[in-house]
Amino acid sequence: MPLSSRTFKNFIAGEWVAPITGEYFENRNPADTDDLIGRFPLSGAEDVARAVESAKRGFAEWRATPAPARGDILRRVGDLLTQRKDELADLMTREMGKTLTETKGDVQEGIDTAYYAATMGRQMWGHTVPSELRNKWAMSFRRPIGVAGIVTPFNFPLAIPTWKMFPALVCGNSCVFKPAEDVPHAGAALVEIMLEAGLPPEVIQLVHGTGVVGRAIVEHPDVPVISFTGSTATGSFVGETCGRMHKRLSLEMGGKNAMIVMDDANLDLALDGILWGAFGTTGQRCTATSRLILQGGIHDEFLSRLVQKARALKLGDGRKSGTEVGPLVNERALQKVEGYIDIGQADGADLLCGGRRATGKGLDKGWYFEPTIFARVEPGMRIEQEEIFGPVLSVVRVRTADEAFEINNGVKYGLSSSLYTKDVNLAFRAMNELDNGITYVNAPTIGAEAHLPFGGVKQTGNGHREGGWEVYEFYSETKVGYVDFSGALQRAQIDNYAGAPT
Ligand code: UN1
Predict the structure, then answer these.
(1) pLDDT (mean) for 336-360
(2) Strands 24-29, 32-41: parallel, antiparallel or unpaired by DSSP?
(3) Does the beta carbon of 306 sit less than 6 angstroms from any atom of ligand 1?
(4) N or C: fewer beta carbons within 10 Å in the chain?
(5) What is the residue extent of each domain of the chain?
């Protein structure tokens, strides 16, 4: 496999090629920065331009391929991902740090997305409805859009690219794909598998690099559809550009997700949930639980049990068995988290555990940070409002469910929320009243499944959803056809009402 070589290439116009820029960047293991994974192309706008030219040719071929045949290729992608699940998980953990259990889950999400996409190739529904005129048919159907620009984050190196590319491809679009610069190896491995499964080479283009590449894709006039997952700040730039250029755009951005635990909750269950929600993926999920809202009756007991458990979490290399929390992805992420520790303390929150870089045996060469809990957090504090993207949990105390709901809704983001209770009425109220794209009852804020729509409200997104059936609407354009077989000119809205009282 060319992947074993240390200098990687882009995949453009059906070939693995060096970047026109001639420049490369290093990619290192966040658990051990002495471990160099490889040098990857630091591509520029010219590389993107070549990729888009080729993707236009790929689109012409691919759109003419029947959707069920496109789906069959995605099924083979799913089969190959299944065969290589362990190998891919190992590569991903080495590259971005989360534990093997989690990277296997990440690959599985890609497999689920592939098989779902395969079946969607046979279900690209339109509608046939009666015409208001005699001997005339009226129907709608779906057409592909063109070259899709796919810009993805590091935290789900496989699942998120598959969420975007597989439906885009089944709908008949071609893709120009830029994986996050922290996970280029996973991006390359995914593209290799797609090609091996039989995807025509010009239908997929892989361009490595930084935001320079993302920007060139977003600004390219021949890329009419863009899907971006990343920060709200970058998303705003992408949104402005796409708005100005009249592009179709799906944005998936930040979160500040809360778990609410009521006095009547099963506390053991809630405890398992919060540890997984807050510290899984080292807190680096858009869906991570970063706020814990506790009702007064259980606040003290729950918190002391939680702090004990958080302190006992085993940090380490995600590829070693027994590791529960891996490193942060890079130094910048670590510095950002450190900055929020200072902010939380300056704002008067109580640091109960963590709050510093983890050191000790096996940890000194990685970007490890201790699982951190702040108590006495007040609504409105920055650590309660802003996305930290690290293992930092802010705990707020409330008296009532109404107060908890208000705090849940009092942030600019709206991805996921969670409520632990035995009160079925409150559970349904929560689903109705919490301003999020997803609400979990008696489960943490993470754990979305590939066959349901995924996304958030407010500044988390721009109204589109990934996953499930809805994303197929995003990647296709509705076309309407009318067939008049009456043999005469029939004027809609006029001839059928001729002679009717006005
Ligand atoms: C993300 O955090 O960007 O629900 C995606 C979850 C995963 C997907 C998360 N299935 O946590």
Answers:
(1) 97
(2) antiparallel
(3) no
(4) C
(5) 13-253+461-480, 257-441
- What topology does CATH give the domain 257-441? Aldehyde Dehydrogenase; Chain A, domain 2 (3.40.309)
Q: How confident is the model at residue 497, as a pLDDT?
A: 86
Full-model pTM: 0.96
- Please give the sequence-ordered ranges of beta strands (E in DSSP) within 399-484, or none if there are none: 413-414, 416-420, 438-441, 457-458, 476-484
Query: What number is the average pLDDT over the span 267-278?
Result: 98
From CA 495, how far away is CA 483, in angstroms rounded? 17
Nearest to 229 by CA among 327, 318, 163: 163
Q: How close is the Cα of 67 to the center of ligand 1, in Å?
A: 28
Query: Is pLDDT above 80 for 498?
Result: no
Confidence of residue 292 (pLDDT cuts 50, 70, 90): very high
Q: Can you tell me which atom of ligand 1 is nearest the CA of 287?
A: 2
Domains 13-253+461-480 and 257-441 share a fold: no
163 close to ligand 1 (CB < 6 Angstrom): no
Phi, psi of 500 (to 5 degrees): -75, 150
Mutate to test the pocket of ligand 1, among 103, 287, 452 (most ligand atoms within 8 A of CB): 287
Rounded mean pLDDT, 250-260 = 97
Question: Is 286 among the catalytic positions?
Answer: yes
Closest CA to 1 of 196, 197, 181: 196
Compute the CA torsion angle 403, 408, 411, 417 (nearest 10 deg).
180
Question: Does residue 2 carry a pLDDT above 50?
Answer: no
Could you tell me the distance, in angstroms and rounded to a whole number, from the CA of residue 447 to the centre of ligand 1? 6
Classified by CATH at the fold level, domain 13-253+461-480 comes out as Aldehyde Dehydrogenase; Chain A, domain 1 (3.40.605)
pLDDT at 411 over 80: yes
Q: Report, as an integer, the average pLDDT of 325-339.
A: 98
**Ligand 1 contact, 257 CB (< 6 A):** no
For ligand 1, the distance from its centroid to the CA atom of residue 492, given in whole angstroms, is 48
| 3-state secondary structure string across 248-285 | EEEEECCCCEEEEECCCCCHHHHHHHHHHHHHHHHHCC
Query: How far apart are alpha carbons 43 and 46 in whole angstroms?
Result: 8
| Residue-level pLDDT at 502 | 58
CA 285 to centroid of ligand 1, rounded, Å? 6
Q: Active-site residue among 181, 286, 387, 466?
A: 286
How confident is the model over 467-495, as pLDDT tens digits?
999 999 999 999 999 999 999 999 999 99
Residue 383, ligand 1, Cβ within 6 A: no
Catalytic residue flag (residue 175): no
